[in-house]
Design a protein that fits this description.
There is one protein chain. The protein has about 325 residues and is mainly α. The chain is about 65% helix and about 0% strand. The protein contains 16 helices and two strands. It has a two-stranded antiparallel ribbon with strand order 1-2. The longest helix has 26 residues. It is flat, with a radius of gyration of 24 Å. The C terminus is likely disordered.
Length: about 325
């Protein structure tokens, strides 16, 4: 509740950004400093809310009695594991921050300030703006948003947080709701990062077909069904390509961050599949590699990708197959 209230407050403040920074006076130089301060404060506030929400994943709750000097009170335990339902609420909030607009400013405010010369803040000669100040960003909106998202993902996938997830899921196995193991968290975030169309075109549903189709596309150039019919697997692949083609630049940036963070997990786990998080990371990276192979080699799927999405997929597939320096993560 507290974290969602914080997001709502930030959204309300930024929704009235124009009136708060410019107002009737139209002082654009003053607006520059006010905008920078407001965006910095709101960005850090939203990022903090998501990072603290991550503590609910595999977390625990200390009773008020224990926190303020008593014991459990009324026979209750002083510490309790966070329920699965509460963990899912935290995961929903984190997903909303990663894919929503909470870390950004309304584009109409941004472009209006640009149009009115909001970056003209340098000292000038004869009252004219200093040309060296033109085009400077008082606050790097996109850079700050991407940095916050990386910190959120690093926090969720950190060894300490994952250890809490594993112990909590193990301890809650016999409860009515059960726990929320790392695999489920990775599955949920993967679907949010890539979108429903890509999630539907998954290795879990089409693993055999994906392997066969990838081989046929590499060797024969086609993997269509009998009589020219499109098999369900390819239909899902082409829907995934169309979905990727509709995504924006910040969604693609988030996907790049996600792939990098999963690769870091494999590096940290030395490629081991014995650890649940390492196994989930390897599964998702391998699945993406297979998906990208089909999307790039199937003519219809490739044409459904926008030019930006095509470049993005090509770059990520190269990263998956080559891996970080001095390490091969996945075999083509």
């Amino acid at each position: 509740g507290y974290f969602r209230d914080r997001l709502a407050l930030v959204a309300d403040v930024k929704g009235r950004l124009w009136e708060r920074t410019v107002g009737a006076g139209g002082d654009w130089n003053w607006a520059t400093g006010a905008l920078s301060s407001m965006l910095y404060t709101s960005s850090t506030s939203v990022a903090s809310a998501a990072r603290y929400a991550a503590k609910h994943l595999g977390g625990h709750v200390v009773s008020r009695q224990a926190r303020f000097g008593g014991v459990g009170g009324a026979g209750g335990a002083p510490v309790a594991l966070t329920e699965r339902s509460k963990q899912l609420e935290a995961l929903d909030l984190i997903s909303e921050v990663l894919t929503g607009d909470a870390l950004y400013v309304a584009p109409e405010n941004y472009t209006s300030l640009l149009r009115h010369g909001w970056a003209m803040v340098g000292p000038g000669v004869g009252g004219m703006p200093d040309e060296s100040a033109l085009g400077r960003l008082p606050f790097p909106v996109l850079e700050a948003a991407r940095k916050a998202k990386r910190q959120i993902l690093e926090n969720i996938l950190s060894p300490r947080r994952v250890a809490h997830m594993q112990h909590s899921a193990w301890a809650l196995e016999g409860s009515l709701e059960g726990g929320l193991p790392p695999r489920e968290i990775v599955d949920a975030l993967h679907g949010v990062v890539w979108g429903q169309e890509v999630a539907a075109f998954s290795g879990r549903e089409f693993y055999g077909a994906m392997q066969v189709c990838g081989h046929l596309l590499r060797t024969t150039g086609t993997c269509g069904g009998e009589g020219g019919a499109t098999p369900p697997f390819l239909a899902e692949a082409r829907a995934a390509a169309a979905g990727l083609g509709r995504q924006g630049v910040e969604q693609r940036a988030l996907q790049g961050l996600w792939v990098e963070e999963l690769q870091k997990v494999l590096e940290r786990e030395a490629g081991s599949a014995q650890d649940e998080l390492g196994a989930s990371a390897r599964e998702k990276l391998g699945e993406l590699n297979d998906q990208f192979t089909v999307l790039l080699l199937d003519d219809t799927s490739r044409r459904a990708l926008s030019p930006e999405a095509f470049s993005h997929i090509v770059a990520l597939r190269g990263l998956l197959q080559e891996g970080p320096p001095d390490r091969l993560l996945l075999v083509p």
